[in-house]
Amino acid sequence: MLTLVCYDVNTETAAGRRRLRRVARVCESTGQRVQKSVFECQVNQAEFEELERRLLDEIDLQLDVLRLYRLPATRGMVVKEYGQFKATDFEGPLVI
């Protein structure tokens, strides 16, 4: 299932800047960055739960915001992209 991870980490302190880097590393290990604080992750239910747990371990619930959007594989789902970034199609052929 396609999952969008969006976060806003308070970076007013050195601890906040460290949290931001740790949250980004967790996301980078699972998906691809599509905007500065938005990642697309192709995960199954177990991987989703692990990702959620790891992210909750990193953020400060009093200062930060974390949003996880689970998008079911519905027939006809369309994602439109504009601009320089082109996302990897996880469902398409892999060419090395």
UniProtKB/TrEMBL annotation:
Enzyme superclass (EC): hydrolase
CDD domains named among the record's database cross-references: Cas2_I_II_III
Signal peptide start and end residues: none
Gene name in the database record: cas2
Assembly: Homodimer, forms a heterotetramer with a Cas1 homodimer.
Source organism, top-level taxon: Bacteria
Annotated HAMAP family: Cas2
Entry binding sites for Mg(2+): 8
Keyword Endoplasmic reticulum belongs to the record: no
Function field: CRISPR (clustered regularly interspaced short palindromic repeat), is an adaptive immune system that provides protection against mobile genetic elements (viruses, transposable elements and conjugative plasmids). CRISPR clusters contain sequences complementary to antecedent mobile elements and target invading nucleic acids. CRISPR clusters are transcribed and processed into CRISPR RNA (crRNA). Functions as a ssRNA-specific endoribonuclease. Involved in the integration of spacer DNA into the CRISPR cassette.
GO BP, sorted A to Z: defense response to virus; maintenance of CRISPR repeat elements
Organism of provenance: Vitreoscilla filiformis
This protein's record includes keyword Mitochondrion: no
Protein name per the record: CRISPR-associated endoribonuclease Cas2
Co-factor(s): Mg(2+)
Keyword terms, alphabetized: Antiviral defense, Endonuclease, Hydrolase, Magnesium, Metal-binding, Nuclease
GO molecular function: hydrolase activity; metal ion binding; RNA endonuclease activity
Family named by the database record: Belongs to the CRISPR-associated endoribonuclease Cas2 protein family.
EC number: 3.1.-.-
